[in-house]
Amino acid sequence: MTKVKTILVSQPQPSTERSPYFDLAEKQKIKIDFRPFIHVEGVESKEVRAQKIDFSNFTAVIFTSRNAIDNYFRLAEEMRYTVPDDMRYFCQSEAVAYYLQNYIVYRKRKIYVGKRTFSDLLAFIKKHKTETFLLPSSDKLKPSIPESLDKLEIKWSNATMFRTVVSDLSDLEDVFYDILVFFSPSGIKSLFENFPGYKQKNARIAVFGNTTIKAAEEFGLTVNIAAPTKENPSMTAALTDYIKQVNKR
Predict the structure, then answer these.
(1) Which of 18, 38, 70, 72 has minimal Cβ neighbours within 10 Å of its Cβ?
(2) 13 secondary structure, DSSP code
(3) What gap in Å lies between CA 125 and CA 113, rounded to an integer?
(4) CA-closest candidate to residue 10, choices 23, 21, 24
(5) Which pLDDT score is estimated for 192?
(6) What is d(CA 69, CA 88) in angstroms, rounded to the nearest whole number?
(7) How many CB atoms are located within 10 Å of the residue 193 CB?
(8) DSSP-assigned letter for residue 225
(9) What is the DSSP letter of 199?
């Protein structure tokens, strides 16, 4: 394998200078570019009505992402629905709950926060089985989420409020990177929708998560770097480990 000099991360550039990617680039003397291979587009209010969703029927909202928060409050405003002060919010992680402060007075609301995964949140939801829950989501909701909610035997509805859309990458057609980094099956799909005849050649493929590994292999890619693992719990750790091995030769 040739030495790694360039990396393309299929996500937006980090908003903070303290990102471990910047540390990686500086320490290993490599160039790292960022480009989202997919992006989110909110659905129109008429599409929510077509799903037979009436916001006033729900006493609690389950948020799994910041996109879900943005689009829930956007649509509530478009549909002229005033979110009541006694609404209960169930957030998958602290990061999601913290983001909720952009829309509500945090300390005056009933908010329940999971540790990190959706399964961590189920115990809180189970304790409030009398509530009627709304789950705002994208069009690519993990099957395990509705399955978990159904097992709780609660009243809940899913509303598709935004979609994951393939980004236009045509300007990258003649650009080569030593490593391409992916975090979702949608990112892999975007690569081949933009470049149907894509050949991996000497590029190394780095992926995060088992579903992304599976998608890469289904498209005929060879996965060279995978995370998380026991040795490398983050993508930057996995990249650092790989680059140290390859570039020392």
Answers:
(1) 18
(2) P
(3) 10
(4) 21
(5) 97
(6) 13
(7) 15
(8) E
(9) -
CB atoms within 10 A of CB 161: 26
DSSP-assigned beta bridge partners for residue 111 = 89
Query: What is this structure's pTM?
Result: 0.78
At 120, list the tokens. 């961590």
Cβ-Cβ contacts under 8 Å for 172 (sequence gap 6 or more): 8, 35, 194
**pLDDT for the residue numbered 249:** 64
The domains of the chain, with CATH numbers, are 6-37+167-247 (3.40.50.10090), 41-164 (3.40.50.10090)
What pLDDT does 115 receive?
85
Residue type, 164: T
pLDDT digits (tens, 9 = 90+) for 29-44: 999 999 999 999 999 9
Q: Regarding beta strands 110-113 and 132-138, do their DSSP bridges make them parallel or antiparallel, or are they unpaired? A: unpaired
- Which residues does the chain have with pLDDT short of 70? 108, 249
Nearest alpha-carbon partner for 177 in 34, 11, 28: 34
CB-neighbour burial class of residue 182 (10 A; exposed 0-12, middle 13-18, buried 19+): buried
Q: What pLDDT score was predicted for residue 70? A: 97
